[in-house]
Amino acid sequence: MTDTTPPAGPAAECPVLRRYKITHRTTYTYSGPVTSSYGRGYLLPRDTDEQRCVASVVEITPPPADRSTGSDVYGNRDLYFQVSTPHEELVVSAESEIEVYGPDRARLAAAPANAPWELSRPVGTEGAMAQEFVLDLEPPEIGDAVREYAAPSFPPERPLVDAVVDLTTRIHRDFAYKSGSTSVSTRVAEVLEKRSGVCQDFARLAIACLRSRGLAARYVSGYLATQPPPGKERMIGIDATHAWAAVWMPGDRWLAFDPTNDQLVDERYTVVAWGRDYADVPPLRGVIYTEARNSTIAVSVDVAPMEVLAPDQPKC
User: Where in the chain is the domain with CATH 3.10.620.30?
Assistant: First the structure.
């Protein structure tokens, strides 16, 4: 079954900087028969001002008895399926072709990115749609430790982009990337205490810091294209889903940044979905009916470049 999206929005009028073929394959293996599986997730990349999903397809094995795609409250494309055939292995494979136009860097040379960060607090009618992204989660994540960690990056009247870059660099410097050290349920306070985590944790910490200053921040889920070392061939299937954060600016624009890699988001990033937190946009979650005692999950992600235009190609 193929889900396609037509050219849409301002991005369709901009020159393509990157084109990627993204394959995301998830395999669940069970120690006994599963009679029914119900799944929901976010595997279909969305259209934005900075990218276009040319085509996408999700294959599910065994074939589902029921499946549908829709749009959630944030405009993300979600997938639902029900597999009623007894099975000991479930494979969900998503394949997408994405055109990336990249961020408009001109916005970093002018207000509001270079205006005092206090002016990016969403207020009034203009900021109404962003105000829910200022609110803390339940249970709360913003405590004294978060406020204290955030404070040095946000002195009065510092330009927003400078504050965000400083926060990004500090998280990258102060926290060790340690795969397996946390889970999807790990709290921000625990990450602060352990000083380690993965991209999801660093994005959530940055978001909590921004919200502690009254700024609107969202969690972004997607992919980051990686380059092989010089002289080495690109290895297939070793990429992974990635997470980063974005802060709201007046004019309903968002400045995206990646504390895991200490950089602002550019044309190497492709967005799948965004929300207030990871729990809003997991790649897959579901319920199974089985008496099996054990299960394993294997995930393979490949972000393959299809085309790179000349570096002097003007951005829109």
Answer: 103-265
Q: What span, in angstroms and rounded, lies between the C-alpha atoms of 16 and 50?
A: 10
Strand partners, 18: 100, 308
Q: What is the DSSP letter of 138?
A: S
Decide: helix, strand or coil at residue 244.
strand
CA 314 to the chain's CA centroid:
26
Q: What are phi and psi of 110, to 5 degrees?
A: -145, 170
Separation CA 255–CA 164 (nearest Å): 9
Say which DSSP state 293 is in.
Answer: S
Of the CATH numbers 3.40.50.300, 2.60.40.2250, 3.10.310.40, 3.30.70.580, which one belongs to the domain with range 17-99+282-306? 2.60.40.2250
What is d(CA 79, CA 71) in angstroms, rounded to the nearest whole number? Answer: 9
43-92 pLDDT tens trace: 999 999 999 999 999 999 999 999 999 999 999 999 999 999 999 999 99
CATH number of 103-265: 3.10.620.30
Token output for 85 = 């055939």
Q: CA dihedral defined by 76, 82, 87, 93, rounded to 10 degrees?
A: -20
How much is the pTM?
Answer: 0.90
User: Residues 280-289: what's their mean pLDDT?
Assistant: 96
Run of H or E including 145: helix 144-150
